[in-house]
Amino acid sequence: MGVSLLSSPAFPRIFIFSFITLYLIPELALAGITRHYKFDIKLQNVTRLCHTKSIVTVNGQFPGPHIVAREGDQLLIKVVNHVQNNISIHWHGIRQLQTGWADGPAYITQCPIQTSQSYVYNFTIVGQRGTLLWHAHISWLRATLYGPLIILPKRGIPYPFVKPYEEVPIIFGEWWNVDPETVISQALQTGGGPNVSDAYTINGLPGPLYNCSAKDTFKLKVKPGKTYLLRLINAALNDELFFSIANHSLTVVEADAVYVKPFETNTLLIAPGQTTNAVLKTKPHNPNATFLMTARPYVTGLGTFDNSTVAGILEYESPLHSAASIRNLPLFKPSLPPLNDTSFATNFTNKLRSLASAQFPANVPQKVDRHFFFTIGLGTSPCQQNQTCQGPNGTMFAASINNVSFVQSTTALLQAHFFGQSNGVYTPDFPITPIFPFNYTNNPPNNTMVSNGTKLVVLPFNTSVELILQDTSILGAESHPLHLHGFNFFVVGQGFGNFDPNKDPSKFNLVDPIERNTVGVPSGGWVAIRFRADNPGVWFMHCHLEIHTSWGLKMAWVVLDGKLPNQKLLPPPADLPKC
C-alpha cells in the first residue's frame, strides 16, 4: 500500500473514525451531517533533534489530529483546556458565515479558554471544499497546536481534475528545542528579534539532513504509474517555504481551498497560513531510486532566520526491495531556488488563476464601494526608561499597518461590538490611507516610530472593498503573508515599487484572479485585493509571520448586520469563554 491518510503513522485515531464513517457507512456520509470532535489540550513529552521537552498538544498528538468533513457539514469541536496556558483555536480559512464566535483569534472574537474550562466551536462549512488548517491563535502556541482541516466535496461531486489514487496531507512546521513561549516573551521584553527555530518539519518530523533525525523522517511510499494528491500546508511560524521533490514535477490544482487552473511546476512557494493542493504523478515503472522532498525558506527581510532544510523521502514500493536494499538505492536531491529568489516567487504567484468556470465562478466585485490603501512593515517603539533594548539604535522592534501598531484589547472585540459596548475597547477610526505619505519603497523616513491603538474599520453589510497593501522599506523591504479572517478575496493585481493609482488599476485582472485567504505582499512591492463584506462580525487581518503579528502588524474590520435574517450575526453561544 502507498501512504494513505489511514496508514500514516502520525495519523490520529480521531480521523480513522471519520474515515470509517465516510467510507464504510456511506448512508452516514450524506451532505449536511453533524460531526463531533473533541480536543483535549494537554502536555506531552516529545523528542526531536535528540531533545525531549514537554509541549502543548491536542490529544497528545504532534502535529494535531486531522479534521475531515464534507462541504455542507456542521462541525462541533469541543476544546477542553488541561494546561496552564490560555487557549483559543482558529479554523483558518473557514468563512464562519454568521458564526464569528467560532473563528477563534483570542481577544478578537472570543476570550481565550482558561485552564480547566471548555468551549464548543460550532460552525457549518458553506460553499467551501479543499485543504485548510486549524491552529492555536494566541501568543506562539500554534508552534505545536496545529493540524490539517480537510473539506471533501459533497458526495457525488467530483474533483475538477483526475481522481487521485490516494490523498496525503503534508504539513510544514517549525521546531524549537526551547519553549517558543519563552522565545517570544524574551523578544518582546528585550525589543530585539526572536531566536530562530532549530528545524523545519514535515508532518512533525525534521528528516535526515538534521543531526540525530534520520529516524524522524517522513516517508511517502508510492506505487509506479499512480496519481497522488498532496495536500500541502504551511503551519510554520515565521517562514515562507520553497518545496520540491527530486526528479518529479507537481501539478498545482488548488490554493487556499479554491480550485485553480492547473499548471505544472518543479518547485512550489507556500507562505505561512497558505495551503496548496498538488497532483503528483509517479513514474510509470519503478525507478530503482529514492528521492528527497525538501523545503527551505524564502527570505526577504534583514533579520536572522532558520537557514536549514527539512527533508522527507519519496520511496517506490517494490516486492523486490527489502528495507535494507532500499537504503542502498541511489538517493536524488532536488534543486531549490536561492533563499532570496523573489523572481521565482513572482513568477510562481503570477501563474495562480481561478478556474472561473460555470461550476466554480470567480465572482470578482466589478464595482468598488470603498477604496483602502494600507502600508505595512516594520518600525520601532521607544525603549522603556532605565532599560536597554536590542532593537534598531537601542529601540524596540514594532510593526504596523498605516503606522498604527495594534494594541490587543483585554476584552473580545466581537462581544464589545455585538453588545454595543465598544467605548473604551476600540475606536472605529482606523486610517483608510497613510497619515504621513512618503516614498514607501525607496529612502525610508528618518522617524521610524509607530503609533499605537486599537482602531477598526467599520463596513456596512455587502460593501465591495478594494484594498491596496503596500510594503515599506522602513526597516528593509520584506514579503508579508497577509491573512484576512472571515473572507476569501481576489488578488486582482500586484507589482513592485510604489502603487500608482493612475496607471496600475488598468492592469488589474478582473476575470480570473486567484481567490484566497492569505496573500504574500511582495517584498518592495504591493498587492491589490477585492472582497465583498457579506459576513457580519469582527474580522481580524494580520501578517501570518508570527513575530510581525506579535509586534503589532494587525487590525480588524467590523462588518455590520444586513437587513435579512441570514445577514445577521447569530447571538453568542452560552459557553462562550469569559475574560
Automatic annotation (TrEMBL):
Which keywords does this Swiss-Prot/TrEMBL entry list?
Apoplast, Copper, Glycoprotein, Lignin degradation, Metal-binding, Oxidoreductase, Repeat, Secreted, Signal
Q: Where this protein primarily resides, as one coarse class?
A: secreted
Listed InterPro entries: Cu-oxidase-like_N, Cu-oxidase_2nd, Cu-oxidase_C, Cu-oxidase_fam, Cu_oxidase_CS, Cu_oxidase_Cu_BS, Cupredoxin, CuRO_1_LCC
Sequence ranges assigned to domain Plastocyanin-like in this UniProt record: 42-154, 166-318, 439-561
Cofactors demanded by this protein: Cu cation
Q: What class of enzyme is it?
A: oxidoreductase
Picking any one GO biological process from the record gives: lignin catabolic process
Q: Name one GO molecular function term.
A: hydroquinone:oxygen oxidoreductase activity
How is the cofactor bound, as the UniProt entry phrases it? Answer: Binds 4 Cu cations per monomer.
CDD domains tied to this protein: CuRO_1_LCC_plant (cd13849), CuRO_2_LCC_plant (cd13875), CuRO_3_LCC_plant (cd13897)
Q: Where in the cell is it found?
A: Secreted, Extracellular space, Apoplast
Q: Which domain of life is it from?
A: Eukaryota
Q: Which residues form a coiled coil?
A: none
Q: Which Pfam families does the UniProt entry name for this protein? A: Cu-oxidase (PF00394), Cu-oxidase_2 (PF07731), Cu-oxidase_3 (PF07732)
**Which reaction is this enzyme known to catalyze?**
4 hydroquinone + O2 = 4 benzosemiquinone + 2 H2O
| One cellular component term from this protein's GO annotations in UniProt | apoplast
User: Does the entry feature the keyword Glycoprotein, yes or no?
Assistant: yes
Q: What is its EC number?
A: 1.10.3.2
What is its biological role?
A: Lignin degradation and detoxification of lignin-derived products.
Which family is this sequence assigned to? Answer: Belongs to the multicopper oxidase family.
**What protein name is recorded for this chain?**
Laccase
Protein source organism: Castanea mollissima (Chinese chestnut)
